[in-house]
Amino acid sequence: MRTLFLYIFGVSVFTVIFFDATITNAQTSSSLLLTWRAHTLAPAEYQGKTLPIRGARVTTSLAAFQNGTLLDLSSRDISWFVNNRRYQTKKGGVDFEFVIPAQAESTVTIKSIVLNTAQGNLEKIISLSVARPEIVIDAPYPSYTLTPTLHLFRALPYNFTANRINQILFRWSANGIAAEGAP
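Structure (tokenized):
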């Protein structure tokens, strides 16, 4: 019985020491949050995040937290990399803007490093999927069945580098014949 008591007591003390050390270590560590926004177009009713395409401008922002508190990075040197190529190092540079390279593959890697903190260099890496511009044609007809009358369709552009829809030129055709009317 005494052996069982000593075993349980020993395991309990080890568990408390182990978990206490883990929690203490987790409380003193900093975490980085890297967010991004692609400057691409989507319909106004679209509630998702637009995706970056080749040639699109992307804005990224960095935030650091310690024990749930936002840290002030204004005095820290921050380096930014795109596909492992350093673009800039700037004091307090929590915002970074770049253009997706024309030769980009299907993903682009963004890396941010906060230099010379009490914990050393802090690094955050994210990968952005590089999309292609798309047009979705909205055909509001039951079962998408057409009769030989006038039909109205709506083109919904996603992930174009235009700022407004009127900057995109639409040309409509059906069966190889140009459609008449307003674009």
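The radius of gyration is 27 Å. The longest strand covers residues 107-117.
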